[in-house]
Amino acid sequence: MEYLLDQEVSTRLETFQKLLGRNDLDGALVLQNVGIYYYTGTAQASFLFIPGQGEPMLMVKKSFERARKESPHKNILQVNGKRDMAEMIKDSGLKPDAALGLEMDLVPASMYLWLRETFPGVLWKDISSLLRTQRMIKSAYETDQIRTACQIEHEVFTDLRTFIKEGMIELEVDARLASLARRKGHQGIVRMRGWNQEMTYAHVLSGDNGAVSSYLNSAHGGTGTNPAMPQGAGFRRIGRNEPILVDYSVGINGYIGDQSRAYVIGDLPEKLQKAHDCSRRILDRFSRLAKPGVLCSHLYQIAWETADEEGFSRFFMGHGNGQVGFIGHGIGLEIDELPVITPGFDKPLQEGMVLALEPKFVFPGEGAVGIEDDYVVTETGVERITLTEQDVLRVEE
Amino acid sequence: MEYLLDQEVSTRLETFQKLLGRNDLDGALVLQNVGIYYYTGTAQASFLFIPGQGEPMLMVKKSFERARKESPHKNILQVNGKRDMAEMIKDSGLKPDAALGLEMDLVPASMYLWLRETFPGVLWKDISSLLRTQRMIKSAYETDQIRTACQIEHEVFTDLRTFIKEGMIELEVDARLASLARRKGHQGIVRMRGWNQEMTYAHVLSGDNGAVSSYLNSAHGGTGTNPAMPQGAGFRRIGRNEPILVDYSVGINGYIGDQSRAYVIGDLPEKLQKAHDCSRRILDRFSRLAKPGVLCSHLYQIAWETADEEGFSRFFMGHGNGQVGFIGHGIGLEIDELPVITPGFDKPLQEGMVLALEPKFVFPGEGAVGIEDDYVVTETGVERITLTEQDVLRVEE
């Protein structure tokens, strides 16, 4: 088992405490698994109190032994539940009228109301954005984890060229993806932050299933196997001369790589091939233009214009009610991190960001094509870390 | 694609509206996927407003076409987001000082605060318990879905007897589970309601990994592959004469079956075999005693006494800080439904409940054994719906 380096944890904490100070906060209560892991190196069931200055308190419900082994923090305490936690924070000398941060996009209303009642003088402020903004910039260690995930993805994407056969149901391909990456060490769960969003490890969408929109905030959805879990692969049989879009995520040491490729048995219809080539052209332009200082909204604009020039804007990133307004997103411990490459996101790229860029085209009744690749923002540009060739991948027959 | 029957949806709605009336509520705003699916037959991205009387309003963000196809409701409207939703509810004639229900165990604090501001006179009440209590009693349709899941589980558990080999890493067995059930139609995600709880489809825990406790509210945890996702299978090689505990869930049409079995290559150490036999004895007693009217807390007591008589209470449902205080739980659209078979749950069994009962024993340094089976509560007793034999399953060599 590879533990998070002490240096990672202490650097993250130092940055966070500076951010607390700048935002007039006396501390923060971090309650969700991902946030706890990020600042401690353990994801055991805990409450994490980070004061504006000094040592954080990690109060662990289960497993205490494991949290002590995994985290370099010194101040690790055992608690039975939230009442213990509140007592400990009060005893630590918290001002009764302190201003404390909380991830209000995640913490349930009932927990929030309990905290308000238990700490009557405390002012609770939403720190979701502060915390996500810190996590937007990755360390070399973090980027390395995503590189490893991308390497595994490449192996699996390569394997599929010999595995897919005409007449197979989508679920068979999906099952293959599930099995291969898991054997190679995929953590089994892909975390997504957005409320009510859920992530399978893959979408395998053949022909018109690629154009079935869903509840997900993504260009494609797919039927899934049933209306209660309406996303991803279903029972559709894969045919000849139609696109098979595979969107696939792998998690290594918490960190997620996210890649898509289009396959075909035979040849794609000309329009779909043209659209796929347009996706490739968008990524080429992105690779040339993107560097620290360039606005995310500008990068979206360039992509949209490229699609529009070729007459594909109606099918860009979905169609009709299913169209989404972004072409890329940060990846890290969650698959929907910052930044977002979208018109409303007017912040510049910064060195250390890791992005998944996914210009895709969705044609009603015909299917989805396009590429999703992951990039690290370097000092002078971007480096592509996904390894698979960008053409439509022809299945070996 | 199999859609939810009109009759299911209308019966559920009728029951829910009666419950609203009895709890002095003028309506409820259902925001989470599972609740929306339960009352409408669609899980598309939506807001569901159910008034105390009359037609519910299903306000759909994405996909509108799909929601209309999947749900039998008449009043399905397209919205851009929550602002539209609030306007529509106000326009529907809501009293400004209405009392409305909300699932406060799930809805994020930020959404709750936004609702309070947007509906200034409305009193929001937590209906988590009301809604979970309704869902505790399953219809014949719901039970049938879980039966189908149990059938698939049985096939996969049977397959494992010929697949497991000495020296395999746990992840290989896990990958096999992932692949087999997915091909047979498993929906790919197992939903768990508890905040900060996450579910892989399986735990494959060999030898001492069966005794590694985790952040999960379960008797066993496992190392997982990394400290950021610390549950389930890891890189441990499976050995001879040690327990291999497999806990495995499959979702069909939203409904989850949940089964565990212990395997062995060779023979189990005597103490572990004895503990496994004790698990079987607990299930036998449960089968004879359980029927409508018997208190859940009483069933826990009987199980605990059986474990204690044989000297195993210290290892019952975990050990040390990792011990959990329940031996069973409802299953349905979520894997942690009501009732809970625990000392604090003093309610009686009722016809139509579906339970997973999982008396397990965890020995530090040695591993976990035990059985998890699913039962339907009938008019006069319980019916076991998991199909696999209850002995320790000997791997074929």
Helix % of chain A is 25-40%
Shape of chain A: elongated
Distance between the termini of chain A: 40 Å
Work out the helix count of chain A. 10
Stretches with pLDDT under 50, minimum 5 residues of chain A? none
Mean pLDDT of chain A: 97
Biggest sheet character of chain A = 6 strands, mixed
Give me the secondary-structure category of chain A: alpha+beta
Order of strands across the widest beta sheet of chain A?
A: 4-3-2-1-5-6
The helix/strand series of chain A, from N terminus to C terminus, equals HEHEEHEHEHEHHHEEEHHEEEEEEEE
- Subunit arrangement of the protein: homodimer
Short description:
The first copy, chain A, has 397 residues and is α+β, with helices and mostly antiparallel strands. The first copy, chain A, contains 10 helices and 17 strands.
Topology:
Two copies of one chain form a homodimer.
Chain A: H1 6-22, E1 27-30, H2 33-40, E2 45-51, E3 57-62, H3 64-70, E4 76-78, H4 82-91, E5 99-102, H5 109-118, E6 123-126, H6 128-135, H7 140-163, H8 170-183, E7 202-206, E8 244-252, E9 255-264, H9 270-289, H10 296-309, E10 328-330, E11 337-341, E12 354-357, E13 360-363, E14 367-370, E15 373-377, E16 382-384, E17 393-394
Parallel strand pairs in A: 1-5, 3-4, 5-6, 9-17
Antiparallel strand pairs in A: 1-2, 2-3, 7-8, 8-9, 10-11, 10-12, 12-15, 13-14, 15-16
